[in-house]
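Bench notes, bay 3.
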Amino acid sequence: MLVLHYTGMASAALALERLCDPAAQVSAHYLIDEDGAAYALVAEGRRAWHAGLSYWAGERDINSRSIGIELQNPGHGPDYHAFPPEQMRALIELARGILARHAIPPERVLGHSDVAPSRKQDPGELFDWQGLAAAGIGRWPPALRKPQPVGLGPAGGEGETRELQHQLARFGYAIGANGRYDAATRAAVAAFQRHFRPVAVNGLADGETRGLLAALLDR
């Protein structure tokens, strides 16, 4: 897997200091600054502590199965902003090499919020997943042409909610099918929206969100 993060810190210098501090118990294989400068911190063949408590498609020890890239960005808050073109170009160049060396398929290029939806939001809705997929890294859903499913939220029926949960679990998210539109369901839907429908992230499985999920499952 390739897992993308933002640092959530004010500068790359502060992020480097933390990522290189053994007492912090957090690390990543790479850090990319906003100007495109890339720092190699942990050898790709070694385990880095970047994902924390996480899950994807039956795998729980994500740190042992992934390469983590931190992107300098202050993160959600008043200073959260889009990732600059220089940073994205550096990411694309680095990621292409990683995918080639480790035979990582598109469906295993993920955000931290995908593997830990109840805890994390990064890299967030301002990250250009569509542009990354256009560069051959990761996935992006096709345009929806057929009628979209009816929207679904906390007031939805048990059967429909269970079907949605099954779809989210098939896609890879850590979610059980209990038929309740609970906090875990809302978090998984919000994570999906951040990645594939970033214009509106609310955790509600509206028709467009459900249609995009179904389209990706069909590919």
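Next record in the batch:
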Amino acid sequence: MTTRITADFAIVSWHEEIYDQPEEGSTLLQATIQKSYQGAVEGTSVARLLMVRAGDEGGEGYLGSERVTARLGERAGTFVIQHGGIASGDELFSFGHVVKDSGTGDLAGMSGTCAFRHDEQGAVFTLDYDLGP
């Protein structure tokens, strides 16, 4: 049975570096970030992102792998999510998945999908997950 939960999150640290910046065209960057989660997910994470910025007014995109160390209700452990997004103007497309069987501890066997949202209410993480039989 799939369970949906949400949590607020905050970016605790962000370190990025450019690894390719041609005279013309898009800039490629990588970033290591740390987050804290509060709500139905209580914990922390570390993520590595690969990003592209297509000029001052152009689109942006990223792909990331993130290990979450957290408590979900009475269950504690870790799991890995892979997520990404493309933004162009006001349009945003994003996706996220729990890497099946990446869970440890009480979260072993976890699978699911996830989404991140940033709006006037803050930063919110939504997780739809299943822990299997």
